[in-house]
Amino acid sequence: MQRAIASLPLALFICCAQPQPLPPPALTVDGIPVYGEADDVPKSQIRAAIAEDRRWSPAGDKIYSIEVANPSELHIYHTERNKRLEEYHVLRRVHGKWQADERMISGSALLVPTD
Fold first, then answer.
1. Over the stretch 99-115, which tens digit does the pLDDT of each residue have?
2. pTM assigned to the model
């Protein structure tokens, strides 16, 4: 019994340290997995957003996935999604056209220790 209790903190650490895998994508557009409320945005509009993103991204910048935040906002990820480091473009639909709004970078890898 003591062994089971002693190994519980280690099991919790291992469990919580592993990144949680993403659920299966709602759909795939041109080989890119699309997550979120993908049924709210037609594939033609997702393709239009991809084209707009590529217009503003450096040449060869790979798209790893897309998150449909709502019918007028998409997040196009240029890194694999994880808590350590994520980079994505926020695209918003304004007057019927997708516009690259901002590029977001977040994650624990950005935290720099200060002494």
1. 998 888 888 777 666 66
2. 0.75
Q: Amino acid identity, residue 11?
A: A
High-pLDDT (> 90) share of the chain, %? 50
Cβ contact 33:2 at 8 Å? no
Instruction: Please list, in sequence order, all residues whose beta carbon lies within 8 angstroms of the beta carbon of residue 41, skipping any fewer than 6 positions away.
Output: 68, 71, 74
- Per this entry, what is the length of the chain? 115
User: What number is the average pLDDT over the span 36-61?
Assistant: 93
| Rounded CA separation 52/76 (Å) | 11
Alpha carbon distance 104, 102 (integer Å): 6
Q: What SS3 string covers the chain?
A: CHHHHHHHHHHHHHHHHCCCCCCCCCEEECCEEEEECHHHCCHHHHHHHHHHHHHHCCCCCCCCEEEEEECCEEEEECCCCCCCCEEEEEEEEECCEEEEEEEEEECHHHCCCCC
